[in-house]
# Entry
Amino acid sequence: MVWRRFGAGPALVLLHGGHGDWRHWIRNIDALARGHSVWLPDLPGFGDSDALDGHAHAPDRMERLVDALVA
# Structure
């Protein structure tokens, strides 16, 4: 999975929705990065991230992915 990071400080992970990518948050990055380390992933199959095998966007796969991100 491809990630981008901006700023420094406490971590803030922003996940794009739908068929977007990290640029979904482009208008918010500067303000949020003033006090945080902002992490912006391209979820599997979107943006610069490779797709996963099978049904990558099935709810159980996405739930496991989010669990791994916040662990």
DSSP finds two helices and three strands in the chain. The first strand starts at residue 2 and ends at 6. The chain has a mean pLDDT of 86. The two ends are 16 Å apart (CA to CA).
